[in-house]
Amino acid sequence: MLSNSMLMHQGAAAPVLDEPPDSLTLEQFAQLRKSVPAEPSEAAMFSHFYLGANATRRAPATRKRRPRAGMGTSNGPITCTKCGSQYKTRKSLRAHIRIQCGKEPNFHCPLCEKKTYQKIHIEVHMSRVHKIGGWRYNEPIHND
């Protein structure tokens, strides 16, 4: 006798247990339907989600991350002693002291009075405000 999976592989339809065979009572048939898992469709069998009738899914593995310096600690935010600005990390505070604290902005928009501490901010400003896309700082502006 061919099993359901052999019949499916050969292209024949698998037998369906809708009515009890003559040799089983209704109670036996009901118990059989509960205990026998339904055959998956052919598409489901070949998908990467099919794990088999008795398989269970595991929860995805979780990874613990170490908190970054200055974040999630009892110290709270790190404050600049010169101007009072607060930062989450020491790295951000050091960058603030090196680039911004007590200094004038280095980068100026050639079309308006906008000044920034970072070159990319002027480039974004030129793109969004003055609609000059792809412009790079220190390039001449062509008034066509």
Describe this structure in words.
The chain has 144 residues and is mostly helical. It has a domain at 78-128: Double Stranded RNA Binding Domain (2-Layer Sandwich). It is 28% helix and 6% strand. It has helices at residues 4-9, 26-35, 42-46, 90-99, 119-128; strands at 78-79, 86-87, 107-108, 115-116. Strands 1-2 form a two-stranded antiparallel sheet. A two-stranded antiparallel sheet has the order 3-4. A hairpin with a 6-residue loop joins strand 3 (107-108) and strand 4 (115-116). It is elongated, with a radius of gyration of 35 Å.
Secondary-structure arrangement, i.e. CATH architecture of the domain at 78-128 = 2-Layer Sandwich
Q: Please report the distance between the alpha carbons of the first and last residues.
A: 85 Å
Biggest sheet strand order reads 1-2
Tell me the major beta sheet.
2 strands, antiparallel
Helix content: 25-40%
The string of secondary-structure elements, in order, is HHHEEHEEH
Strand proportion, as a percent range, falls in 5-15%
CATH topology of the domain at 78-128: Double Stranded RNA Binding Domain
Beta-strand segment tally: 4
